[in-house]
Amino acid sequence: MQLSRRKFTTLAATGIAGLATRTSFAADESNAAGWIDAHVHVWNPDTQSYPLDKDYKKADMQPASFTADELFAHCRPEGVQRVVLIQMSFYQYDHRYMNEVIAAQPGIFSGVAIVDHHAENLTSRMRELADQGSRGFRLTSGGGGAKVWVDDPGMSTLWSEAAKNGWAACPLINPHDLPAVDTLCEKHPETTVVIDHFARVGISGQIDPEDLANLCRLARFENVHVKTSAFYALGKKQPPYDDLSEMIRRVLDAFGPERLMWASDCPFQVQGEHSYAASISLIRDRLDFLSESDKQWLLRGTAEKVFFG
Predict the structure, then answer these.
(1) Does 19 score more than 60 pLDDT?
(2) Does the pLDDT of residue 121 top 80, yes or no?
(3) Angle (CA) 12 14 16, round 5°
(4) Beta-carbon count within 10 A of 285 CB
(5) At CA 134, angle to CA 156 and CA 186, rounded to 5?
(6) Of residues 14 and 165, which shows the higher confidence score?
(7) Exposure of 53 by Cβ count < 10 A (0-12 exposed, 13-18 middle, 19+ buried)?
(8) Spatial distance between the Cα atoms of 216 and 218, rounded to a whole number of angstroms
(9) How would you classify residue 79: left for phi > 0, otherwise alpha for psi between -120 and 50, otherwise beta?
(10) Dihedral of CA 218/110/267/162: which sign?
(11) 260: which strand partners?
(12) Under 8 Å between Cβ of 198 and 215
């Protein structure tokens, strides 16, 4: 459900996060490199060479295949030349396939890995994955919710190591997890944080004002970023996704364009009535409140800074 102008004005007037100062995108050689998709999963149908984690079976792979070449068929016609790969849960802690894709085309891909934050070798494992091309570590709240992270020693180590090395903590969370992530940001203000998919605000079909306010409250931490992504799963869940425009405007005003990054969440974005073109078009073509500088940040600059710097 699209936020009414009255509701949006009320949220903006609360001063929870304040209006972010817009920063113009600085033109340099990177402008010629094309857009960046900040969130894509890839997998290979060959489960003999790349076995699935014990909690998954081949029928869970929907679609059955989504390789780099299959991704390029969708993204390159839209001007996307670089991609941040997110380790797929099918493979859990086995990063062989993602790392092979990264290594095969240097400079095209960056990675976000999954680690067991309870493992004794957590620090060395994070460094190993970073050496293989990962620049972030995905945190999935699961059944217990993110509140269990707040006092967890392993989670504290992960956030501290990320801050020390310039890596990102990347929470995949639901709206009710936002207070816990807020607390972690208070404990670790130096850690770069990238919130996936607006923290799934709007996944119920409606953009809840309180959820959106909690997301925007994180803007007071200067190292927190938000992915404007997974349009197929939020709000009315129908292209061209214009009902998401007020949520995008709200996070833009809170965080500024230099802390927002667009992402498709392929291959899920290219199923059924949804398409890659519809996702990128919302940011590139349809939102009249985005300046050309804003678009440069959302479609390239922010992801470049965080994942390709």
Answers:
(1) no
(2) yes
(3) 95
(4) 12
(5) 30
(6) 165
(7) middle
(8) 5
(9) left
(10) negative
(11) 226
(12) yes
Q: Both tokens of residue 60?
A: 């869970």
* 301 DSSP 8-state letter: I
pLDDT tens readout for residues 255-290: 999 999 999 999 999 999 999 999 999 999 999 999
Instruction: Give the residue from 67, 61, 62, 94 showing the smallest Cα distance to 83.
Output: 67
> Would you report the helix, strand and coil content of the chain in percent, each value rounded to 5?
50, 15, 35
Q: Which tokens in the block code for residue 55? A: 């909690």
Cα dihedral 214, 256, 34, 195, rounded to 10, equals -20
Quote the CA–CA distance of 33 and 81 in Å, as a whole number: 7
Residue % of the chain over a pLDDT of 90: 87
Report pLDDT digits (tens) over 156-198.
999 999 999 999 999 999 999 999 999 999 999 999 999 999 9
Q: Place 3 in a pLDDT band, splitting at 50, 70 and 90.
A: very low
Please choose, from the candidates 250, 259, 251, the residue with its C-alpha nearest in 3D space to the C-alpha of residue 224: 259
Q: Would you call the peptide bond into 240 cis, given omega within 30 degrees of 0 as the criterion?
A: yes
Three-state SS string over 107-118 comes to CCEEEEECCCCC
Q: Note the Cα 121 to chain centre separation in Å.
A: 26
The one-character DSSP state at 82 is E
Following DSSP, what letter does each residue of 246-263 receive, concatenated? HHHHHHHHHH-GGGEEEE
Q: Which residue's structure tokens are 């295949």? A: 65
Summarised one tens digit per residue, pLDDT across range 219-246 is 999 999 999 999 999 999 999 999 999 9
pLDDT the model gives residue 145: 86
Please tell me the predicted confidence (pLDDT) of residue 144.
76
How many CB atoms within 10 Å of residue 134? 28
Separation CA 41–CA 84 (nearest Å)? 9
Q: Are 303 and 257 in contact (CB under 8 A)?
A: no
190 touches 215 (CB < 8 A): no
CA separation for the pair 243, 234 (Å, rounded): 9
State whether residue 99 is helix, strand or coil: helix
